[in-house]
User: Which sequence fits this backbone?
């Protein structure tokens, strides 16, 4: 954890910002590639997926942080997975009950959050070593970073693949949708170009 | 005895957590199960109304109709009678299922009052490849079933999709999914038709 | 960049071989087909070729600018890519789609890999694949050549005359394959497919013009005969087998060779020195693979034409082929 902020408030702010940009899970850590590529064909499912991840991440970080002193080192991964699986199941049930359309659109990718590396990475790297407050802030930052990235990716793809945003037409009539952007190829190309852009901005040499 | 003690020493947290998490999921499930089932029911009704716009209410006409779905397996489905506002029978609807390209495909099939022409089908749940197999949800493919005769349907790779006949033109690139839909429709339609005639719900006609 | 790297150990090649020279030769080799395309598709052909060349060159210039690399336009490779892309597009394609394709093929197909020589896949085919995936309808609407009176000739089985568009012979062969009859009508089109008086992509319709171009390239030794021969032989063999088994529903191997993009692919696309294997044996494996996959897609697959996919697939295994058939250094194998 970076600790170049001043005092507790500085540390909190730093942790929050780390997830949003400096250690952005998708652009900088390259974690959670499966949902990044799979559910970003449209903004709405991407946003739903992001919210699910935030929920699971916050809950699992809270639980892991609370029991961090009780963890047996060789059983910790088991505990993490158990915790994550529980909250993912709850999120899945919630979607089925209150957002049936999104649940159908996301299909297997909600249950697959269980194996999303971001969550187990945060449990291992942050929550199992830090106090409750910082774990929550870390979870919110990381989750928000993930969600924003997903939405940015999905925005570009949905706009080009269908000419719509959130299902509403925004492009002029003469626009012919680029169907390929809605296919896996669109996901790979857009992600690649965005990674390139981020690397250019941060001045990282190829 | 020492081994048992050691076992509990190491894993008490795991056991306790399992119970707690299990309880949590059970509570969530109990709370939302009703809504989830209601959602599925709503989806079924919405699809029926979409295909039979006159339908106002529906009642179960035949419960637990056994349909042989090949390989000696039978599947039970209940046939619902769609009624218009003034109590006239405007069509029949039933769910049917079969294996698709990736997973089970569940369809709602609607037929007109005389069981002579299809009103169409709607996809309740499927997990076909996005961009290819999931085009079975598109109007292009679904419209071919509207007003098709309730005889054996044939899948064609080339042909005129606008002509309303027993020939269904496959979705290019998704022959397996297209075939799955036609097979499901054929399997259920024929057997349910003869079943209905047996029970005297419809005339045995021509 | 590449033209600077001419320092090598003896024996020195007496001919000054530069990328620019090679590309210039290829452009000359493509010229007959360009003329044929302009003759058959008139203004459409000229506009499409010009659009693709200009936007390919523009994209390369822009990419170099962004990446702060020296300008690589004068090696003419972008021009060749542009022409080949234009050749593989249907004549009636709108200009904006051609621009999207050109940008994609140079930016994604070539420049992101690091420019000429570093790309894994043939850039023109990458661009075309993207266009096919995006604008399926536009990419399969074929125009009748301007020299044909559309009212008079059509090879549609049901005698429907479409004044503007016409399916390609391969699309009909696909239909014949499914209806299990009617391959005759397609075979009768062999003559038209040879001269190019038939619907299809810009540059691939006229077998005659393509052959004229490749003869020049072979004489100039810009390309060697291994890959084209391997592609054509394997496609011919594959086509012959199906023709012998069932001549009612499959078209003759000669018609297969002359229609669609097979000749164009064998002469100008598969021979791309960057994405093809380096050794002679590797070239044969590569060529046979391209021919066989093309025919496999044409005969068994869903699509009427498979040249684009077969080239990309074989491009993907080119590094493996190169590994398998290592170039033996001059003076024999290095000893332990």
Assistant:
């Amino acid at each position: 954890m970076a600790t170049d902020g001043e005092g507790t408030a500085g540390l909190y702010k730093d942790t929050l910002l780390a997830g949003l940009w400096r250690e952005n899970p998708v652009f900088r850590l390259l974690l959670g590639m499966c949902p990044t590529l799979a559910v970003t064909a449209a903004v709405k499912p991407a946003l739903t997926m992001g919210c699910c991840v935030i929920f699971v991440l916050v809950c699992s970080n809270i639980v892991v942080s609370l029991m961090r002193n009780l963890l047996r080192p060789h059983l910790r991964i088991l505990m993490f997975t158990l915790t994550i699986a529980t909250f993912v199941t709850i999120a899945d049930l919630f979607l089925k009950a209150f957002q049936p359309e999104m649940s159908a659109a996301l299909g297997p990718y909600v249950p697959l959050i269980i194996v999303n590396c971001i969550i187990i990475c945060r449990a291992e790297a942050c929550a199992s070593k830090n106090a409750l407050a910082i774990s929550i802030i870390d979870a919110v930052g990381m989750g928000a970073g993930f969600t924003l990235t997903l939405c940015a990716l999905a925005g570009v793809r949905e706009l080009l693949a269908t000419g719509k945003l959130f299902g509403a037409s925004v492009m002029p009539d003469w626009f012919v949708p680029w169907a390929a952007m809605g296919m896996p190829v669109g996901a790979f190309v857009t992600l690649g170009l965005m990674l390139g852009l981020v690397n250019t901005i941060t001045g990282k040499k190829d | 005895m020492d081994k048992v003690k050691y076992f509990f020493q190491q894993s008490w947290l795991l056991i306790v957590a399992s119970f707690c998490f299990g309880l949590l999921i059970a509570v969530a499930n109990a709370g939302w199960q009703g809504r989830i089932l209601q959602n599925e029911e709503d989806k079924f009704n919405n699809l029926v109304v979409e295909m039979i716009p006159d339908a106002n209410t529906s009642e179960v006409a035949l419960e637990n109709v056994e349909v042989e779905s090949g390989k000696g397996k039978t599947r039970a489905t209940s046939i619902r009678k769609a009624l218009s506002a003034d109590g006239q029978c405007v069509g029949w609807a039933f769910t049917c299922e079969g294996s698709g390209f990736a997973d089970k495909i569940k369809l709602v099939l609607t037929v007109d009052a005389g069981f002579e022409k299809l009103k169409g089908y709607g996809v309740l749940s499927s997990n076909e490849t996005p961009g290819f197999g999931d085009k079975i949800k598109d109007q292009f493919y679904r419209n071919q079933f509207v007003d098709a005769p309730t005889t054996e349907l044939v899948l064609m790779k080339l042909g005129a999709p606008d002509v309303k006949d027993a020939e269904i033109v496959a979705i290019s690139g998704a022959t397996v999914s297209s075939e799955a839909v036609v097979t499901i429709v054929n399997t259920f339609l024929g057997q349910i038709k003869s079943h209905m005639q047996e029970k005297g719900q419809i005339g045995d006609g021509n | 960049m590449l033209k600077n790297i001419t320092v090598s150990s003896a024996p020195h090649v007496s001919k000054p071989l530069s990328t620019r020279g090679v590309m210039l030769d290829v452009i000359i080799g493509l010229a007959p087909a360009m003329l044929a395309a302009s003759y058959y598709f008139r203004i459409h052909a000229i506009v499409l070729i010009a659009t693709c060349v200009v936007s390919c060159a523009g994209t390369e210039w822009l990419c170099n600018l962004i990446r702060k690399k020296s300008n690589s336009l004068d090696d003419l490779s972008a021009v060749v890519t542009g022409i080949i892309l234009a050749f593989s597009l249907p004549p009636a394609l709108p200009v904006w789609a051609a621009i999207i394709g050109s940008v994609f093929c140079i930016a994604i197909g070539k420049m992101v890999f690091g420019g000429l020589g570093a790309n894994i896949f043939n850039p023109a085919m990458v661009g075309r694949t993207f266009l096919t995936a995006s604008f399926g309808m536009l990419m399969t609407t074929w125009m009748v050549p301007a020299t044909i009176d559309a009212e008079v000739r059509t090879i549609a089985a049901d005698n429907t005359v479409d004044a503007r568009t016409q399916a390609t012979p391969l699309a009909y062969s696909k239909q014949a394959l499914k209806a299990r009859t009617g391959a005759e009508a397609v075979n009768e089109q062999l003559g038209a497919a040879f001269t190019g008086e038939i619907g299809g992509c810009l540059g691939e319709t006229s077998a005659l013009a393509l052959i004229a171009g490749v003869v020049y390239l072979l004489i100039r030794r810009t390309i060697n005969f291994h890959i084209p021969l391997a592609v054509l032989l394997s496609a011919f063999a594959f086509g012959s087998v199906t023709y012998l088994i069932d001549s009612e529903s499959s078209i003759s191997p000669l018609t297969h060779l002359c229609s669609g993009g097979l000749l164009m692919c064998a002469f100008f696309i598969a021979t791309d020195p960057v994405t093809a294997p380096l050794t002679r044996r590797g070239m044969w494996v590569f060529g046979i693979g391209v021919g066989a996959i093309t025919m496999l897609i044409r005969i068994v697959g869903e699509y009427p034409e498979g040249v684009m996919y077969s080239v990309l697939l074989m491009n993907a295994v080119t590094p493996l082929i190169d590994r398998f058939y290592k170039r033996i250094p001059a003076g024999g194998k290095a000893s332990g």
Observations:
- Helices of chain A lie at 7-22, 33-38, 43-66, 76-98, 100-106, 117-127, 132-162, 184-201.
- The longest strand of chain A covers residues 164-165.
- The interface with chain B takes residues 41, 67, 70-72, 75, 78-79, 82-83, 85-86, 89-90, 93-94, 96-98, 100, 104, 107-108, 179, 182-183 of chain A (CB under 8 Å).
- Strands of chain A lie at 164-165, 168-169.
